[in-house]
Amino acid sequence: MTSTLVTATTAATGGHPTVNSDGAARNITTPTRPGIPEWAASSLRRAYPHGYAGLEKAIADSSAEADLPNVADVEVHADRVRLSCHRGDVVAEVPFDVSGAAPHGGVPDFVLDHDRQAVFLFSDRDERGVAAPAWRQRLFDLLRPGYWLVEGAAEPGCALLPGVPGIGELLAGVLGREDVRAIHPWVRVAADAMSREPGTGGAEFAQNLHRASVELRRSGLDPELQRALDGAARTATRLRRGVQPVLAIRRTSRQAVLRGLDADDVDSLRATFADPAVSGRLAAAHPVDPAFVADASAADLLALVDDLRECEFFTIFLMDRIAPADGGATRSPAGVDHAPEAILITPGSLRETTTLVRSLSRANAFLFSREQSRRMIGTTREGLIGIDRGRQVVGFFPGLGSRSFYRDLGRGLLDSGIPEVVDVYEQGARALGLPGPEALLLVPGNVPGDRLAAQGFIGAAFLAHGLALDTHLRVTAANAGVPLRIAGYTGESFGIITAAVAAGALSVADGTRLAHAFTPLLLTAADGAGDDSPAAEPAAYLPESLRGRPLVTEPHHVVGLRGEPAALAALLAAVARTFPTSDVEVHKLYSHRQTNVYVRAGAKDAFDRFAGGFPAVAVEELKPPTTFLAHAERMTAARHAFERFMTDQGVVFRKPHAPVVSNNNSGLLTTAAEVRNGVLAIVDEVMASRATAETLDALRPDAIVELGLGGKSVRLLVDNDLDVPVTSYTGTAGDADPFLRAVRLTDTLLGQLADLRTGAGRITDRHHDALRDVFRAAGEDRFCERYLYRTIGRVVADEAARHDRSAPPAFHELLETLQHTCNYRDHVDVEAGELVLQARLRKRIVGAAEDLGQVYAELKVLDAAGVVGNRSLTRVEQHEVVVVHFDHLPGLDYADLAANTRLLLDTQPLARQIYDQVFDSLGVADDGFLTLPGVTTPTVDQLALGYLVYQYTLFRLLRLHRPAAFLHDHYLAGSDPMGWLVALAASGAAALPDVVRLYAAYLRSGTGTEEAQAALDRVLASLRTPEVPVLSSAGTPLQAKIDLEATTRVVFA
């Protein structure tokens, strides 16, 4: 039965925070009609956009209002929806045909439950029957960036997939039926033989099953039984065909999927599935998990797996089937018989399989929860950067905190000659009833004299200017031949409204009305203005009980707290224990090293004295005291008023054409409802700029552009240590804008590289001039430097990692000149046009004693006049080789190790895959090795597993995300027993579970015990030739198994 589990991270109460007359926070419950809890509604709307209304109605019609607050899980099955409480008891079960709600043709879900899998056997030969090993490499290249790829099962006797039963077990349900045995007793004999010795008697077995299928068809028995017998016969036949590559797609374990949930939810679900009654019902419902298997060409599979992109919870296995020897058995090179495992094929063709999987809901690919929905952004891009797809850019709109830079802007944008820019101003002016676009310009003559009216005008004009800048950038880039692709929009606080309009979720008119109303409404709510004009209009949207009663009783200081994360966290925790939120309230998580708070004026002196007790945290007043407290929980009533304004004004939110990155820690906003909630969040939810920056970094755009003045958004992103180049666009520099210049120069150079790759040209002055322009621009502007070196560096790294080196010599010559000049740009005069054509590292082995062993670089330099000369650099900062060092991590205590490990498991699929494999091998419960800090002392097994696997995982992740660091000579080294074992595992010389067992035994009983010796012997007996040399304590690279064995014995002597 297909099902989707939606899990709440907190109980849904339907309540909203508000304030009492004394300013203290309290909770009230707003009556609503029965419906899906809001925490689940957003995920289900995304999963079932066309059928959500019917789903909601079905639940509302079948549920009692009193039951809804108790709902913690919503399970969507193929034929019903089940609502359950935290204990797992069913609150309601609603009949519903989900097939009508599910979008067809979406992401295929090959899995019906947590252990089901799809398997494809495909030929690695082309249409003419010629071996085409490139198909396999293409599959690897396609899969590695986006999936959890497992290679293995390439030895005789290995199981094809973990957990796949033999053919005898798979056929037991079919051949065990009495009616089949009665008709064909000899099928039973063949099946029994196959079960005892899988792989033998394949021809006779297949023939018997074909005959049985024919007779069953004649007798009119179960058609599914006939298809199963036909599939079994095809399996037996295929077993004799020889080696074929296998692609398997399998859902990860349920425990792995749970990594996105809170600890309480994990414990609750584990307890549920550990219940014998529950596990018994599951076993009865799914006695056998047969795999879907189909024949396919490599080209079909390339297209098929590409459809799986953005599905987070799939593991993909790519391996070889071993050819059975004559008689059906598989023989190893040593002549030892092994029994290959087989798989029942049902359905029997790729077309049937894809038809089946595409009919399933794409929602079944995910486990929904509020936390997991936040983490799913799925837009990572990999591979060589092309020149024709356009640069992926994220637009970042500043907040009202930058409005001081907007005084007397003038009409530069309006007079830019771009009709689309003028249209933005015209639409905004019409929405406010202004006479023309000039009336929306931020010039002194346009700003009203009244305070509230002025703030409303500034908000509307601020939004119009941001939208005009966005339009100006896109049009200017297109006219300059610089293709851009918008990867998303976001904004700082108020800027999220502008982002929603730019992304298409709001019209310009609706966005202008919201921007015009936002500040006056919050000021009216904060100050408690009554029905007197001009506050009467915004006050009308407030609850009647709050009119004339201020939500903010006195001005608040806006204070920034800066310090290292640990010190900052300690101060914030102490503040939370000491001060009520009415005195001190966090309103902005600026970065890992800064948090901004509101401090009531009457409490400022006490707060300053208290903060003085934390000297590691700097306290800075960011702006004068104010009653405008956006992002404060006490402004919840203003949020309801803003929402009422949207309804009364008929503001319509639409599905955005580009994602909007929230600023309240809710990730990517891709639906109308999500964008609406994101806009409302700027009133009373903490601004999570740190999380916004992390999401932007995960999007991996080519650049982030602040569309506004002042550079405050650029500073925010820089303070959050973004890897992505960041700049601002003001619309005043035209084609000379640093961003457009950097993109244009980069595209010119990439275009020349592409031409040289496909043609037979040679390097000319035109190519060298393009290189000189690139390096001069990088020296003049910090953004150009970061953008050019990051973009071109990725191209160099990707090209260096290519297995295919068939490009013309001119292509590699230009690429090497680019790389060498980049590496040695501080040693040549790039501003004068010097380029490094060639660079060689050398070591002096003769000469004066003080010079022996000295490393120096020989450079071949081309100057601007075309003259080539040679230079030597005696001080070389580049390494000859890369050495990765491992040890017992003396500076990392176990509490920090546990926190770091959980972060890895939450954010890195490869890390989860490594730990799951180790768990399976060692029989460890998922995450059971992590001890809660301060609760119990970690055991020896936990220490060994935690520290050793953590270092191994970091090394694997480093190779995955920084492949260029390992393109040339690199070695592994360990300075102590733990470090040596990690190096052995990381090099491929030893199995990771074996070295964990050995180190646990070493910690538990020392080196001379029987337990430690047995574990050591096991490691030594299974040593393999390492993929990466391991350095001995004397610095000698070791690659022979005998040398590794001898050194390991010395380490554990």
TrEMBL record:
Signal peptide: none
Superkingdom of the organism of origin: Bacteria
Residue segments, region Disordered: 1-34
Feature: compositional bias, Low complexity: 1-13
Recorded GO MF terms: transferase activity
Protein name as catalogued: Malonyl CoA-acyl carrier protein transacylase
